[in-house]
Amino acid sequence: MTLVAAIQLNTGADLDANLQASRTLVAEAAQAGAKLAALPENFAFMGRKDPDKLALAEPEGSGPIQQFLSDLAREYAIDLIAGTVPVAVPGDPGRVYPACLVYGASGARLARYDKIHLFDVDVDRGDHIERYRESATIAYGEPAYVVAPTQAGAVGLSVCYDIRFPELYRGLVQRGAELLCIPAAFTDRTGEAHWEILLRARAVENQCFVIAPGQCGTHASGRKTWGHTMIVDAWGQVLAERAEDTPGVVLADLDFERLRSVRESLPSLKHRRL
């Protein structure tokens, strides 16, 4: 058994307060014995307007947010998945990369994945349309399959809207992933309709664990996120979930022997013909 933690946050426009909230919950996870903790998308900052995050853009490999993550992982001897950090786009000050970064217990960075599918969507709320255009301030990541070596095994990386593109996850499994991480800031509207369905589908079809830390509540911009942070097993069973619309830690033991048993008894990954 390997204990892992998914952290739910209500991130606001105060960077220092957001980092302190992250520290408190990562410490709680480590003290419970978790070997890996995952933070949600935009854990460090959600401003009043989308361009506000541009002021926090950090160069590759350095900056206060990245240093905070490295120090935090080392302080609590825990592997840490931070999804996402605003990383500067060379030559384009008007956009950032949404970088999901993984740090090992030594503080060393293990992997970086830049979100490749951006949420350019019109959400129908019945009485009005809520318009999202991530590509206005966020740069597309180069299409890539990134699998990070951690204390909780091989973790396939993705972010939020990526969940709607199953080919990404199949590619991660083909590269050895046994745990899929999906940090998110799902809208309350789409989350209520699709969040659990999609998480359990990605777990079942790929015979993987899924860890999905989410943003919750109302943010500085007025945006509402769904929360419902979850950890799901390879059979599609929800091992743990935070139903409360408040920050907190979700813990679950991952039984990798059970995962291998599922893959052996129902070998759908070996039955693929396309």
From TrEMBL:
Pfam families: CN_hydrolase. The keyword Protein biosynthesis does not apply. Residues 2-256 form the CN hydrolase domain. GO terms for molecular function: acyltransferase activity; hydrolase activity, acting on carbon-nitrogen (but not peptide) bonds, in linear amides. InterPro entries: C-N_Hydrolase, C-N_Hydrolase_sf, Nit1/2_C-N_Hydrolase, UPF0012_CS. The keyword Transferase applies. Belongs to the carbon-nitrogen hydrolase superfamily. NIT1/NIT2 family. PANTHER family: DEAMINATED GLUTATHIONE AMIDASE, NITRILASE-RELATED. This is Nitrilase/cyanide hydratase and apolipoprotein N-acyltransferase. It comes from Hydrocarboniphaga effusa AP103.
